[in-house]
Amino acid sequence: MKKLIGLFVIALILSAGMASLSYAAGKMAAPSQTVNGDVLKIEGEFYTVHDMAGHEVRLHVDKTTQLEGAFKAGDKVEAQVTDNGHALSMRHVNVAGSGGPHPVKGDLLKIEGEFYTVHDMAGHEVRLHVDKTTQLEGAFKAGDKVEAQVTDNGHALSMRHVNVAGSGGPHPVKGDLLKIEGEFYTVHDTAGHEVRLHVDKTTKLEGTFKAGDKVAAQVTNESHVLSMRHAAPAK
């Protein structure tokens, strides 16, 4: 009886060992494909990538994955991936032909949080990451014609309106006045962006202003302020 129990225990140990080896072998298997695209989201160990074919690919990334740098949503990446979706390696991919910030010019199609989709002059849809470090010259909405300076990983360093003959008139900017530097007022708008506005002697100022004030301004597409007034705090 004791001999049978001993054999049973040995069999269990061997089975567990084989399962562990099979799992490790699966992770160490040679990559079956290369995935190129934009990181849409990161949920723990799972990265969702919008690949070049337009599909959303879910990749498993763990401590065994060789990561060349840090990654965030919006990054352009290339990953070596096994059949079971495990990423063996991941690296940043430079935009072809760029050697630093490059211009993106076109029509703003949509804004989804910190991501702006632009239909560029070549007819491509370009997804740009816009955050509080982006220098925004004015406020933006879908349909605007824009020009942005963009890094290799799709982050917009700056964005401005592009003049178009016969384009729409002034638009409102509301928010907190962060700082005043000569003729330039930086406003933290209600969408959470920092907007740099040009105020000169032609601007109609209703009162005096200082950092910390809540303001409402009428602004041209070139970020020139036509008028500015104090805004009542939200209740």
Secondary-structure blueprint:
Blueprint lengths: L1 H27 L4 E11 L2 E6 L4 E5 L5 E3 L7 E6 L5 E6 L9 E11 L2 E6 L4 E5 L5 E3 L7 E6 L5 E6 L9 E11 L2 E6 L4 E5 L5 E3 L7 E6 L5 E6 L5
Parallel strand pairs: 4-6, 10-12, 16-18
Antiparallel strand pairs: 1-2, 1-5, 2-3, 5-6, 7-8, 7-11, 8-9, 11-12, 13-14, 13-17, 14-15, 17-18
**Could you give the order of the helices and strands?**
HEEEEEEEEEEEEEEEEEE
Query: Uncertain segments of ≥5 residues (pLDDT<50)?
Result: 18-27
Beta-strand fraction estimate = over 45%
Taking all Cα atoms into account, the compactness measure Rg is 26 Å
Based on the structure given, which CATH architecture of the largest domain is correct?
Answer: Beta Barrel
Beta-strand segment tally: 18
CATH superfamily of the largest domain: Copper binding periplasmic protein CusF
Kindly report the CATH topology of the largest domain. Answer: OB fold (Dihydrolipoamide Acetyltransferase, E2P)
User: Which structural class do the helices and strands define?
Assistant: mainly beta
Structural domains: how many: 3
Main sheet?
A: 6 strands, mixed
User: Could you give the order of strands across the largest sheet?
Assistant: 3-2-1-5-6-4
Summarize model confidence as the mean pLDDT: 81
Number of helices: 1
CATH class of the largest domain: Mainly Beta
Shape: elongated
